[in-house]
Amino acid sequence: MGCVWVLRHGESTANVEGVIVSAPGPRALVEVGLTPRGREQAREAARAALEQGLGPGTVLIASDFARARETAEEFATGLGAEPPRIDQRLRERGFGALEEGPASAYDGVWARDRAREQPADGVEPVGAVAARVREALLAADGLARESGADVVLVAHGDVLQIALALGAGMDPHDHREVPHLGNAELRVLGSER
After folding, report:
1. Is residue 193 part of a domain?
2. CA 11, chain centre distance (Å)
3. Any domain includes 131
4. CATH code (residue 44)
5. How far apart are CA 82 and CA 133, in angstroms?
6. What is the pLDDT tens value at each position of the chain, 193 positions in all?
7. Would the CA dihedral through 158, 159, 165, 170 be positive or negative?
């Protein structure tokens, strides 16, 4: 039976600029893609994944945001796998009025998450992210069980932290207690237990 893995996108132009890009639209879907370093990180992740036993039969499912989709494409090429499938449930968490603001604003959002407070500024609540991520995880797990293939979900920091929390049986509000995923870091779901 295959496993479900998560892969955070490689370094993006938004990472370098230190801004939040979470709203579906031209910026997220087209403009904010990988830097050259981010592309190399995705290729390096594929090389490491080959050593861990992933290969051409691996199924990749990615957010449609450019930075995740481009990471999945580079990763798939490195594995010799089919091009990634797209799943909008893996989109970045919506950060509402914080859009295009400084990435330092994440800290306040995460503090409210830990305190189980309703997010401010139109930020997507943890429960809403967890609901869509749970659906994507169930679909990926079903695919891995039916096909025997490893499935790699390629997405964004908050989304994957919440996925890892769910995979560990944790309250998704505690997602920041899961070790942080670096750019283009690959981790098997359930490994943080």
Report:
1. no
2. 12
3. yes
4. 3.40.50.1240
5. 23
6. 799 999 999 999 999 999 999 999 999 999 999 999 999 999 999 999 999 999 999 999 999 999 999 999 999 999 999 999 999 999 999 999 999 999 999 999 999 999 999 999 999 999 999 999 999 999 999 999 999 999 999 999 999 999 999 999 999 999 999 999 999 999 999 754 3
7. positive
Q: Report the alpha-carbon distance of residue 10 to residue 149 in Å, rounded.
A: 23
Question: How many independent structural domains does the chain possess?
Answer: 1
State the amino acid at position 183 in one-letter form. Answer: N
The pTM of the whole model exceeds 0.90: yes
Is residue 98 in a domain?
Answer: yes
Separation in Å, CA 7 to CA 4, 17, 91, 111: 10, 21, 13, 24
Please state, in angstroms and rounded to a whole number, the distance separating the CA atoms of residues 142 and 117: 33
Cα 55 to Cα 2, 76, 85, distances in angstroms: 12, 9, 16
**Is residue 165 in a domain?**
yes
Residues in CB range of 7: below 8 A, 6 or more apart: 45, 71, 72, 75, 152, 153, 154, 155, 184, 185, 186, 187
First to last CA, the chain: 20
Identify the domain containing residue 93 by its residue range: 4-188
Residue 167 DSSP one-character state? H
**CA–CA gap between residue 117 and residue 128 (Å, rounded):** 14
